[in-house]
Amino acid sequence: MQVVVRSGTIEEAIQIQEQIPEFENGYTAAEYTNRLLGGESVILIAEIAGKLAGFKVGYDRFLDGKVFYSWMGGVVPVFRGQGVAKILLQKMEVWCKLKGYKSLKFKTRNSHRSMIHFAIHQGFDVVDFEPQPNPENSKIYFLKEL
Fold first, then answer.
1. Cβ neighbours of residue 5 under 8 Å, at least 6 residues apart?
2. Cα 67-37-58 angle, rounded to 5 deg
3. Among 1, 49, 85, 132, which one has the highest count of C-beta atoms within 10 angstroms of its own C-beta?
């Protein structure tokens, strides 16, 4: 099946977010709006056969025009294993390069093992670690030079 990636809306991102079990406490539209207002931002939506399959949302969190922050993203479980996350990442990387960003950064929790593996396989480096009392909640920061 062909994956189509296009620009999307906060509402679409939330609609997909609500279908992803790892986001049991997902963000509200107000939180999305708050984060995306400060600088450049992008919402990418992946579709397969016209159905919402995944999303990736990023913004210029550091307001330096150099490091772009990939804040939220995920793939609906039924569409996993079809390359959706990789295609979304590639599209975000192209978008970032066109906008002049030099690197892409994100964080994930230690409990999200598949995301950790994905990041390493896609060329990201671990650049920081924030331990938490519960090791599963520890945060791992990744960076990829573009």
1. 44, 45, 46, 47, 87, 88, 91
2. 40
3. 85
Residues in the chain: 146
Mind spelling out the 3-state secondary structure of 20-76? CCCCCCCCCHHHHHHHHCCCCEEEEEEEECCEEEEEEEEECCCCCCCEEEEEEEEEC
Strands 103-109 and 67-75: what pairing? parallel
Q: In this structure, is the dihedral angle defined by the CA atoms of residues 47, 49, 50 and 53, taken in order, positive or negative?
A: negative
State residue 106 phi and psi, 5-degree precision: -155, 170
Residue 25 pLDDT greater than 90, yes or no: no
Count other C-beta atoms under 10 Å from residue 115's C-beta.
19
pLDDT at 139: 97
Cβ atoms of 30 and 40 within 8 Å: the answer is no
